[in-house]
Design a protein that fits this description.
- The protein is elongated and about 90 Å long.
- 16% of the residues lie in helices and 49% in strands.
- The protein has 454 residues and is an alpha+beta fold.
- It has three domains: 1-30; 35-236, no CATH class; 318-437, no CATH class.
- It has seven helices and 21 strands.
- It starts with a helix and ends in a 17-residue tail after the last strand.
- The chain has helices at 2-30, 36-47, 95-99, 184-188, 267-272, 323-330, 402-410, and strands spanning 51-59, 64-73, 82-93, 105-111, 114-119, 144-159, 165-182, 195-208, 211-223, 226-236, 239-248, 254-266, 284-295, 306-317, 345-356, 359-369, 372-381, 388-396, 414-416, 419-428, 433-437.
- The protein has a 21-stranded mixed β-sheet that branches.
- Strand 10 (226-236) and strand 11 (239-248) form a beta hairpin.
Length: 454
């Protein structure tokens, strides 16, 4: 009995010593923050940019390297600032690979990252490794099976030709992203052509130029300086949108392309998103869009975009234009039909559109108003001048008394299927439209002078 008791005490003592030894070793091993300057210097050599690490630590079960307050700074020619700032990075490491002296990250989690993407007029982006760097250094990371982003922000802009910062052309907020097979080396090295990751993305707000979308969800793919958003679904100004969006970052200027369908969009909110657009138009919009173009290194990076599509707007008003009122007042018809209450109202507008050279052109514009229907064509400048140039024919849909018809026909109207029709043209600007009844004369053509008396 005494011998067994002594053996038990010895066993307990040995176990206690082992636990104490393991605790001391683990504590020593886990206190790795004094290696932080070395890790920052190593990363600087690999990517050619200054790296900041607020704190470095290691956790076990599973083995995880944690970096708090991590940041990568811009390198010349980019202005002072950060490429990326991350509140916390957790990199789970394969212990089996470590035993074979290999660093294999099995998962990566970035919390509260802020990514500033900036393009130089000569082509490179601030997140890329400089082509002049020696190839003897390369990031010793294999493809990461899974990477997550939590509560991220992405902000993209160009430098102007003077190398001064240009305006932001794209931003995304409260981004949650789950990616598979992430190739970090492919992301930062322009010479590497590869699939750099794919997965899903959700964002609270995404903005391209002046237009914003909320509650966006999509599939995302990163591939050789291209970013593809597919199966996109989002809320757009109380309506919805579906489609695709892609960016090509391989050239000196980035290019983008988007296609999709929209429905139920509040037109008043949409036009108010543009400078001086408030109060232009109301109604609900639906249709299809295709937009693409270069993102220029200028103060108006999206000025040269082009596109096509078809739109329908229902039950709205055009307060600044008051097309119906102009027509009705012309022949004193403003006391007829629903237009008497609001001459700027319409039931339906259908139009095709083509955007090119900062001008929006429509071959067919069909307006079903209250008391007046309009069929026309023309264009409006989107360069800032808001210049209008439309031609068409308006039809008074309500039947008129004989005397009114007579006066109208004497004034230049025609009678078609019992309804009066008037040719018109619209010039001026959106703010100050100039409506004129009658066939338009070609620009620059003046009335011929009367022949001199004999």
């Amino acid at each position: 009995m005494t011998v067994g008791w002594k053996r038990g005490r010895i066993t307990v003592g040995i176990a206690a010593v082992l636990v104490l030894a393991l605790t001391v070793l683990a504590t020593t091993f886990l206190q790795v923050d004094h290696y932080r300057p070395w890790v920052a210097a190593f990363l600087h050599e690999e990517i050619g940019k200054d790296v900041e690490i607020g704190r470095l630590s290691v956790a076990v079960f599973p083995l995880t390297i944690r970096l708090d307050q991590f940041g990568v700074k811009n390198a010349p020619p980019f202005p002072r600032g950060y490429v990326i700032q991350v509140a916390r990075i957790d990199a789970t490491v394969s212990t089996t690979a470590l035993l074979h002296r290999r660093l294999v990250i099995t998962s990566l989690v970035l919390e509260d990252p802020i990514l500033h993407l900036t393009s130089d007029p000569d082509g490179p982006w601030n997140f890329e490794r400089s082509p002049s760097m020696s190839r003897q250094h390369s990031i010793p990371l294999e493809v990461i099976p899974r990477a997550q982003i939590k509560r991220g922000e992405v902000i993209a802009s160009n430098l102007l030709p003077s190398d001064a910062p240009g305006p932001i052309f794209f931003e995304a907020h409260q981004v949650t992203c789950d990616l598979n097979q992430v190739n970090v080396r492919g992301l930062i090295d322009r010479s590497v052509s590869s699939m750099d990751g794919q997965g899903t993305l959700n964002a609270s707000v995404v903005r391209l130029g002046w237009v914003a979308a909320r509650n966006l969800g999509s599939a995302v793919r990163l591939e050789s300086r291209h970013v593809f958003f597919q199966d996109v679904k989002a809320d757009v100004y109380q309506g919805s949108a579906r489609g695709t969006l892609s960016f090509d970052l391989s050239g000196k200027s980035a290019h983008f392309e988007t296609t999709g369908q929209v429905s139920g969009v509040d037109v008043a909110q949409l036009v108010a998103a543009f400078p001086h657009g408030g109060g232009r138009m109301t109604g609900r919009l639906e249709g299809d869009i295709t937009l693409s173009g270069e993102i220029a290194h200028s103060i108006r990076p999206l000025a040269e975009i082009r596109g096509t599509g078809h739109v329908t707007v229902r039950n709205g008003q055009v307060p600044s234009l008051k097309l119906n009122e102009s027509l009705m007042k012309l022949l004193h018809f403003n006391d007829l039909g629903p237009a008497k209450k609001d001459a700027s109202a319409f039931k339906l507008i259908r139009a095709d559109w083509n955007l090119q050279n900062q001008r929006l052109t429509s071959r067919v514009v069909d307006i079903d108003g209250y008391g007046v229907d309009v069929d026309g064509s023309g264009s409006v400048s989107v360069s800032g001048s808001n210049e209008l140039s439309y031609r068409g024919r308006a039809t008074i849909t309500t039947e008129q008394p004989f005397f009114t018809n007579l006066v109208a026909r004497l004034s230049g109207a025609t009678l078609h299927e019992g309804k009066l029709q008037f040719p018109f043209h619209l010039e001026g600007t959106i703010d100050e439209p100039v409506f004129t009844e009658g066939e338009a004369k070609p620009r620059g053509v003046e009335k011929s002078a009367k022949p001199p008396p004999r």
